[in-house]
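Deviations from the work plan: none for this task. Representative record:
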Amino acid sequence: MAKLKSMEELAKLRDDMKNRTEMRVTGTNPDRIVLSVGMATCGIAAGGRDTMKTLVEELEKHGINNVSVVATGCLGYCYAEPVVEVRFPDKGPILYGDVDVKRAREIVDQHLVKGILLDHAIIGKGAGRR
Amino acid sequence: MNRYRMHLMVCGGTGCRSSQSVQIVENLNQELKKAGMDQEVQVVTTGCFGFCEKGPIVKIYPDNIFYVEVKPTDAAEIVAEHVVKGRTVQRLVYKDPAGGKQIPASTDMPFYGQQIRIALRNCGLIDPENIDEYISVDGYQALGKALSTMTQQQVVDTLKKSGLRGRGGAGFPTGLKWQAALKQKSDKKYIVCNADEGDPGAFMDRSVLEGDPHSVIEAMAIAGYATGADEGIVYVRAEYPLAVKRLKIAIAQAEEYGLLGKEILGSKFSFRIRLSLGAGAFVCGEETALLNSVEGSRGEPRMKPPFPAEKGLFGKPTIINNVETFANVCPILLNGPEWFASIGTEKSKGTKVFALSGKINNVGLAEVPMGITLREIVENIGGGVRDGRTFKAVQIGGPSGGCLPKSLLDIPIDYESLSAAGAMMGSGGMIVMDDTDCMVNIAKYYLDFTVDESCGKCTPCRVGNKRLFEILERITDGKGTMKDLDDLEVLGGTIRDASLCQLGQTAPNPVLSTLKHFRDEYIAHIVDKRCPSGVCQNLIHYVVVADKCIGCTVCARNCPVSCISGERKTAHVIDQERCTKCGVCFSKCPVDAIVKE
C-alpha cells in the first residue's frame, strides 16, 4: 500500500472500502429494504444461489444502499422457486416467483430503482404491515 | 476483493476468546469451505460486543441475528441451517429471561435498548486488525478534516464546546487541558494515552483498545496536531496482551498508510506513536506517577502544580487523556460539538461506558447517556440482581469510589451527583452487591487493595490507610468498639485531605461511603458481635437444629476437623471450640438442619 498523500486519496479509499462494512451498518437500520431469497433445498435446487448472487451484484452496480439481501427458508411455494420477497419498510411484502438471473435483474431495475412492480411475476402480496 | 453476501461476526474480545471464540472462527471457516460458500460468506473477528454474560457472541449480517453462548461445535449447524438454508438456529437465539421470549435482533434486546454507542461505536462492527475496515466507517476522516480545514485553535475550541470531560475518573474538561498545552511554548510536546486500567472490575479501556485501536491512535494524532506535539505514547498494561498486540498492528498499519509518520496526508504535520508497557502498579494510573514510569523512574506521583500540560513528560508540556476520552474525540470532530453536547446532562455531556459485574444478570459493557439513573442501568440493562436475590448496594468507581444503597438508585449518573453521594465516576466499574455481601468486609477488601498498591511516598496514604485497615479488621473480628467508628471517620478525613495524589485522597471513600449508608451493619458487628450477611468468619457459628437433624452422619463424616459428634439416627452436635467455620457441614447437610448464626 502506497502512502496516502492527501485528503482526497483518503476519501477515495474510504469510498472504495465502503462495501466492506456497509452491510453491517445497513443490517441494523430499521428503514432498510429486505430482499429475501428462498434458499431451502427446493430453492437451492432451482438456482436460488445464482439469483442471490445476481441481486447482490445488481444492487452494487446501481449503487443502491440500504438493502439487505437475506437467505430465507422454504416459503411453501416450491413449484415457483426460486422465490424472492421484496419488503419495503412501510409497505406489505411482494413475492415474486421463478426468479432466474434475468428476472432478478428486472426486480432491481424495475421494482427497486423505478418503483414499478413486475406484475407478471407476482405470486403473492402481503398485507401492509412491517 | 470478494463481495460477500453474508458476514459472520465473531467476538474476539478477551472474554469470548477465553470461551473458545478463536476455535469458533476456525470451525466456521472450515464448514464454509466444506459447503463451498467461503467465497460468498465472510467470517470476521471483531472487538467486544459488550454482552459478555452471554458470550461467545456470533452476529450475522445482513440478517441482523444475534447468537449467544455459541460453542465451537455449533459452527456446523450455523453454516448448514443459517448460512445455506436461511433458517435461524432458534436454540442459539437470546431469550428474554423475563418472559422466555426469543429476541433474534440485538437492537430489540433490553441490554442494548438504552445504550448509545459513541466510544464503543466500532466494537463488534469492524475487524480491529484491519485498517481498511476502520477507514470504511469514516476512520481517519476526523484527522483529515482537522489537518485540511481546521486551525489548532479551532480543534481545541470544538473540544471545549462539546463539553467532553476526562473519562478516567476525575472528569477534567478535555478542551481546557488541550488549551493549556497549546498555550505552552516549547520545542517538544507529548501526547500520552493513559491505558493503565487498574480498577478491579473495569474493562472498558481494554475493550476499546482490543475492539477499535485505530480510534485511539487517530484521536492522539488529532491531539498532537491541536497542541503542536509530534510524539505520542500509549502507556498500557503488560497484562493486556491482546490490546498490546492489536495496538502494535494498528500503529504499523497507520504508518504503512502514511496516517502516522512524516507529513501526514500531505500536510506539514508529523506524528509518531510508541507503546510503553506498565508492569501493573495501580498508582501508575495516576497521571504524574505514570509519567515517572514512562521516564524509567519509580511510579511515584509528583507534586501538582505544575500540571503535566505545563511540565510533563521529560519536563515538556504533555497531554494525558484516558483511552475512553480519546475514543470520543473523532465523532465530536465529524458530527460537531453541538451533537455531542445534546447528549447527557447540563454539566456532563455525552456518554459513559460502564463495566457491569458482580451479582447482576447481564455482566458486560454498556455505554449509556449521562443522566440515566442507576436504577435503569441495574434493572433494565443489567437485568436485575442475579438468582432472584435482593439488591443491597452498587459499588461505583473502584477503590476510589463508594457504595451506594438502594435509596440512591434514582440519582442521575453524572460526575457531580455521584461525588455528592459519596461515590465517584471513576473509570466506570460498577459492581452490584446483594444481601449476602457484608459491607464492612467489602470496605475492608478495597482498603486491602489500596494498602497493597500505595506507593509509599506520602505518610497519610502509606500509614493512614494501613491503620484504617487494622480498625476494619478489628471490627470484622468482633473486637471493635463504637469509638472505632469515630476514628474511621476522622482518620479517613485526614487521609483524604493530606495525601499527595488521588490514590490516597480517594482511598478512604469505600470506608466513608459504607459508614454513611450502612452504619447499622458496622454497629451490628460491634455491638451484637454479629455479621448480618453471614460473611465475617469470626462472627458466625454453625449450629445443628436438633428437631430437623435426621442423624444421617453426613456432616460428621465430611467435617475436616472431626468436631461433629452424635449417634446414627440421633441429633448431632458441633463442638464450637474446635470448629473452623469452613462451612462444609452447612453445604453437605441433606435436610438443611445446619444453620449459620
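Chain A touches chain B through 43 residues (CB under 8 Å).
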